[in-house]
Design a protein that fits this description.
By secondary structure, the protein is an alpha/beta fold. It contains ten helices and twelve strands. The protein has one domain (4-310): TIM Barrel. Helix content is 32%, strand content 14%. It has an eight-stranded parallel β-sheet, with helices on one face. The longest helix is centred in the first third of the chain and has 15 residues, at 87-101. The two termini are 33 Å apart.
Amino acid sequence: MSLCVTLSTGKQMPLLGLGTWKSATGQVKQAVLAALDCGYRHIDCAAAYSNEEEVGQALALRVGPGKNLPREEVFVTSKLWNTKHDPQDVEEACRTSLAHLGLSYLDLYLMHWPMAFQSGEELMPRREDGSICYSDTHYRDTWKAMECLLDKGLVRAIGLSNFNARQTDEIISVARHKPVVNQVECHPYMIQADLLSHCRSVGVCVTAYSPLGSGDRPWASTDEPSLLQDPQLKTIALRYHKTPAQVILRWNVQRGVVCIPKSVTPSRIQQNIQVFDFSLSEDDIKLIDSFNRNTRFIVPSVERDGKRVWRDAGHPHFPFCDPY
């Protein structure tokens, strides 16, 4: 069992989990099985990843009565997608994820983004010109509907993803059930020091998605820096007899940040959890902090007038216009 953080509810959340974004159908089942078999007890999912049914097939083979693992030992997260922000859509969306995953409850359910899209079954509802059809549903109203999921026992905790500090505070100001987590992009090129400090001050745990830089993101360009190839990180890794990936994950978990690296390769899945048998020195923690470039890799972009621009920057609830 990997080490845990204690959420504001008193429940424990493993510091390291398996991410499933971009894990293709036909691969994710084996990835989840490999993760559970080598000690992972935290699986991060989302409706928008379109692979929860296959994750559920893996969970059915390992988790529950008569299986290797009791349900209460495995922490499963899912997320409410942008097209399901209308309060009347929230419970059905949660129940759909539960059915796909074969579970009676989720340990954590997150609002995937503060931005609402037009309600419906399409993940990315678009106009004829290709632009996204937005909705003006406010995340405060969506949050109130998510609180009802907790009241009904469908989820054990609720939280946020991709929310800035101001938006997080806004949710807290209206919450009957406070958010326990804010899941955001976080790696040595985007260390999130201000947001991390703020979330800690209000009792919200931070989870790092794409903690290794998500080199396989669909919109990556060849001129962007490769985190895992950073020469300084390679030098640090050599000193500890670890991989650059292991050093990055250790840096984050040593800061109390939960990490959910994605992989479908069994050897890498196993390597990624082998970060609890060494510690980075304070000097190396500070050195890795100094790599910060405030570089966001995970902001979908589109080409307009010959330039790449953030696709959803025009949405009234787009989170990345604030400094943190």
